Amino acid sequence: MATSVDPNKLPLQMFYKWVDTNPMGTYFTQPMGQGAVRTWTWQQTCDEALRMAAYLKSFGWPAGTKIAIMSKNCSWWIMSDLAIWMAGYVSVPLYPTLAAETVGQIIAHSESKAIFIGKLDDWELMAPGVPADIQRISYPLSPPNNYPTWDDIIAKTKPLEGRPVRAADEMCTIIYTSGTTGMPKGVMHSFANFATGIESGVARVKLDRNDRMLSYLPLAHVAERILVEQGSFATGMSLFFAESLETFTADLQRAQPTVFFSVPRLWVKFQQGIQAKMPAEKLDRLLKLPIIKGLVKKKILTALGLNKCRIAVGGAAPMPPELLRWYDKLGLRILEGYGMTENGAVSHATLPGTLKPGTVGRAYDGVETRLDPETQEVQMRCAWLMQGYYKEPELTKQAFTEDGWLKTGDKGAFDSEGNLKITGRVKDLFKTSKGKYVAPAPIEDKLVMNPMVEACAVVGANLGQPLGLLMLSPLGLQTAKEGKKQELEANLSGFLKTVNDKLDPHEQMSSFVVVKDPWTVESGFITPTFKIKRNKLEDAYGSNFDKWSRSRSPVIWEGS
């Protein structure tokens, strides 16, 4: 049965609207290296997308053919998506940090016939995963190669005639979930899903053509895809792209975003950067001075590049309540969003202008939510739920209840105002040897607030008491390097006691374990959106859990 959606609100039609009404308005601002930038108008974007669409169609592939995109965020990423849709095909985004084996598995599973290869830091490591017989297209900022280039194709190819559109219920993309366990699953979404999801989103978070966003979190992730790409189609706002981690501050300063989305780990890093220059006690003191506090807030937000930010959003993982309150004191009230790939990232969010630490707010318009009476699992349904997992009917069936509600895998509760609290993952709960269940997420929210800590995980299945695994922040590493290891141990030991005093006896950690190696996307310990892969931690450290749990030391250094 066809989905009921206004055709004029489908992604391609919304894009064409801005081409017609604001053809010379700047849509993209792209760093090109060494301080240079290149811009595209809406008209130029449409012209290049239509030319690339004509090139893709020249291969004679049937409608619905899968085309992969593997690149960091850039202008060509979104133009490729548009071109794939204009040609009648389906886009398959790949994270730019995947291992070669995963690249190969996704390309094979999706049966992609072509791949756009763009900005990549580790192309030589990823390249073995790309089959030799797949058609390759290179972006201007891609690693050196001899593939057909975007600019050369655009120069030699006439644009498709007219304005190609797609039906609402046609599949537009397969988003392979990064996953915290196991191999990625291909989540199928239709054009109607994107249209109805973003319509509900912007009804709550008001965006318009005067807004600016910096796109830097992976466009292969559903949250960036919806908020940035689909948000720009729905509102006509302009997009800026980040060049690299090293230039991120300059990229933010250039964009001066009015809307900024980040994951908790990066919001924490911003905070730690400020605290490294201005101790928390001094900042708190200055923020209490009537005349001074306004200047201090402005100076800090300007330094972050967020002085023009009117809507700040956190998501992809729970935001620690203390972190939200800290930013609120600076005058930056961060909305917290909740969603997943399977529901197009549009499920719940706090309301603009409100602060509800510890909750993800109320459901968006068009979303129904309930809790499983036995497990307290959050279940939801809406018009933009996925079409299913590609080629996985059994997994698709398992993802839904018999009456059609999506099983999120998250445990939740509602407060007295109807705001949803995420209390942990159903499968993340573990039982100690004393038979007590522990939910790690709320404890981890407390641990990450120590400026010496960048990332953490609470583990403890079958142990007497949980353990806290800690990855040090740059400040923590610097303190240890400067020969202040004793000082650092004292800090962490005192922090352990402070946190434990606020926990139930069965939740209290026996020790902190400081790990040696950083948890990065490349090392496989975290997903591209900085979620901890608990199974990876169990594999890497599990053999030591018993030994560590028997230690009487509050702080243990891995390997020492």
Walk me through what this model shows.
The termini are far apart. The protein has 19 helices and 26 strands. A hairpin with a 5-residue loop joins strand 16 and strand 17. The strands form 7 sheets. It has a 5-stranded mixed sheet with strand order 11-12-13-14-15. It has 560 residues and is α/β, with parallel strands linked by helices. Helix 2 packs across helix 3. The model has no long low-confidence stretch (mean pLDDT 90). The chain is 34% helix and 21% strand.
Number of strands: 26
Order of strands, widest sheet: 11-12-13-14-15
Structural class estimated from helices and strands = alpha/beta
Structural Rg: 24 Å
Please describe the topology of this protein.
Elements: H1 11-21, E1 26-33, E2 36-41, H2 42-57, E3 66-70, H3 75-86, E4 90-94, H4 100-110, E5 114-117, H5 123-126, E6 135-138, H6 150-156, E7 171-176, E8 186-190, H7 191-204, E9 212-215, H8 222-235, E10 238-241, H9 248-255, E11 259-262, H10 264-277, H11 280-286, H12 292-304, E12 311-314, H13 321-329, E13 334-338, E14 348-349, E15 362-363, E16 368-371, E17 377-381, E18 388-389, H14 393-398, E19 406-414, E20 420-425, E21 430-431, E22 437-438, H15 440-447, E23 453-459, E24 467-472, H16 474-481, H17 485-500, E25 511-514, H18 534-541, H19 545-550, E26 555-557
Parallel strand pairs: 1-10, 3-4, 3-5, 5-6, 9-10, 11-12, 12-13, 24-25, 25-26
Antiparallel strand pairs: 1-2, 7-8, 8-18, 13-14, 14-15, 16-17, 17-19, 19-20, 21-22, 23-24
